[in-house]
Amino acid sequence: MKPFVNIVLFLLSCCLPMANVHAQPFSFESIKSYPFPADMTSSATGSKIAWTFNEQGQRNIYVAEGPDFKARKLTQYNDDSGQEISSLAVTADGQWVVYVRGGDHGSNWDDDAPVNTSFLPEPPQVQIWSIPFAGGEPKMLVDGDLPSVSPNSKTVAYVKGGQILSVPIEGTAKGEALFTARGRNGSITWSPDGTKMAFVSHRGDHSFVGVFTNKETPITWLAPSFNFDRSPNWSPDGTRIVFVRTPGAGGAPDSILARKHRPWAIWSADVSTAQAKKLWEAPKTLAGSTPNTHGGTNLHWAAKGKIVFMSYMDGWPHMYSMPEAGGEPMLLTPGNFMAEHVSISSDRATLLFSGNTGPDPLDLDRRHAVQVSVDKADMKVLTPGSGLEWTPVMTGDGKSIAMISATPQRPPLPAILQANGGKIKLLAEDRIPSGFPTKSLVTPTQAVFTSEDGFTIHGQLFTPANRSAKGPAIIYVHGGPPRQMLLGWHYSDYYTNAYATNQYLASLGFTVLAVNYRLGIGYGYEFHNPADAGTWGASEFKDIKAAGLWLGKQPGVDASKIGIYGGSYGGYLTAMALGRNSDIFAAGVDIHGVHERTTGRIGDILYPDQYEKAPDAEKAAKVAWESSPASTVGGWTSPVLIIHGDDDRNVRFSQSTDLVQRLLEKGVEMETIVIVDDTHHWMKHGNSLKAGKATADFFVRKLKK
Q1: What are the tens digits of pLDDT across the range 442-466?
Q2: In terms of C-beta density within 10 A (0-12 exposed, 13-18 middle, 19 or more buried), how is residue 667 classed?
Q3: Is the pTM of this model over 0.85?
Q4: CA distance 393 to 390
Q5: CA 48 to mean position of chain CA atoms
Q6: 633 alpha-carbon distance from chain centroid
């Protein structure tokens, strides 16, 4: 048994009555040994699929092919180097797999900058690679990002320095610039026959959709305007492009604190003439605003003369279908649930997505694979039950559906379901280590309670086994904030890590409540976009406070020993909880949280680079400060552990540096851990272990004494 485990067991035996001791059945290393699959994709023809596996920091590509779909490891990256794999694609002919290695593509900025968690004198570059599907040595094609493979499977277009280049997929030549255009160019989309390429040129306060044909033909700009045009998608015959248009920047300053409709419309352009017409405009309501869930508008030019897209206009993020000439959209996915991770079959006739829906009321806090036709509302939940399934994609031959599957105990694995029905077949089950503690994990139960202003809040309660007396408890707060914790393993590697940590804390004898506070997804528009939230009032903290009060009333919980922890936005709400309510929260772990919400914003609010300013600028600045944990450090008395990586590209490291200085001045009991040269997402597995073990150890020392 590892030394850390011995220390924890000793503390438990010394600090708790014997009837309350919960023997630890597994180590943190074992619960964190799960393989995490992601990036499920398929070829446009045949039955070939590919995905990535992160196995304790060793990130590799696996493939399988029907009809048996036997999993096969394709790459051999066998060290914990912190180099992610992204932009995974199988070529249309199924002969090649293309991917990017390096960077941090979950970041808010610098996602294509090198990550150097191993402190190498020359950091690894962000590079595009190809490897034969049948196996062989990977070929480093170029330094670059965001690859898009041509329909003939011979050329990879990519982005570097805001320009678009191309390289042969076999690596037989160097990358070559296709053209040079002002702005930052990307969003590469090949025409169906591969003779043209649509792209988006971002130019600050506006953007254009362009079409490149060859080096001898001028670029065609589709109906250029004083707007942001994006998300180009080709018609099946390659003669037209559908795209999304939103207003350009500028205009008279409006109220900052008021909720406003964010307008958007769908346009269609003729590629030969560059003339465009508006097909549909979103309702001018709050819920009709530009959708801000996974994939945004999820715009596709489908088969059968249909254009499909996502909208929140009925209060839920649903898929709609309308004629390609325009007209009234038809709701494809009715019901009180969200559609997420949308994909379209290679014949463009079927949509697949993850949905928190099914025959069980608890499905609101799960995900299942769902399909629907592009021209009629014949939606079908493919995987009902107590498990969780996500990111479904159809194979090119239309015979199978690949997805990721998990349960409350079994960690995620790739899976196959025959398109004509049947049971899910799990792939790569042998990748779960023999020491993984599947049978020792608790099944979280749904918790539902009400905040002081009437919001219904959902959570997942992890209750330790064999508790016979009141003991300590912990609240987990997710980040985002547009996230939803689930009744089982999560589809995000960041929140799968949180789920594993919550299971480990439960094994140590803590009751753990993961809270899905307002601003999160999965419960409709008003929950996702509430009034007075975030920088404009932090109303979501009411849900965290309500969670602490509710948890303190549960059987087996000592209300005087409730801790709280979370990362990113969860770190922000953890710091807010400790500053506002140290009387409820006895200790906290704040992981790369936001702490001062006026930094970098106050000048834009109070002193914009123009004569005019918003009518409520002074009030907005005050509310932003009052929505910052830094404003309530005066009431902070509970001990805290602060953890932050100093290459964080989502929350600036300075947010924690500032808070540390404030807490030192206040004299708050504090411990700190700095993770050098790692990012927001703990690209190095060893750093994820360090942060998780430190979190558990801190709570054992502060809440079990």
Answers
A1: 999 999 999 999 999 999 999 998 7
A2: exposed
A3: yes
A4: 9
A5: 25
A6: 30
